[in-house]
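ingest -> validate -> predict -> emit
validate: passed (alphabet ok, no gaps, 149 aa)
predict: started
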Amino acid sequence: MAEALGAAGSIAGLIGLAGQIAQGVLFLHGFFNDIRDAPDEIRDLRVELDQYQRLYEGLEKLSQRFEPLGLTNNAFEDVEAALVPCKAWTDKLVRKISKYTLKDGPEGRRRRLWSQISVAIRKQRYREYLAALERAKSTLLAAQTSLNT
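emit:
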């Protein structure tokens, strides 16, 4: 009887170990995929952030054009106030990703690999920045909508 309980305990331990190994393998698989995908993600993010920066500049120019005409109102002030966090989060993300090297060649490959690993490690942090930027953009959109009413 004791041997049967011991065998059952051993089997349960092996099943638990197998589950932990499977979790580790899945984590490593995801991590290596993040490393592989990092250059494309950084490029896409740079393009998106450049678009946002051009949009913010356009909105600032637009509000400056209406100011001398006396057409400013609270809605314009709301848009300008909403631009501040949008620009701040965009600039913060641009600074964070600008340090990553995506160059080819022998020296560039080594730096690129370390950059890819760094991006994979910090991926959750960048998601937090992107979430903050999305919240700021939502505020900007609401302010812009009030401008149109």
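The mean pLDDT is 80.
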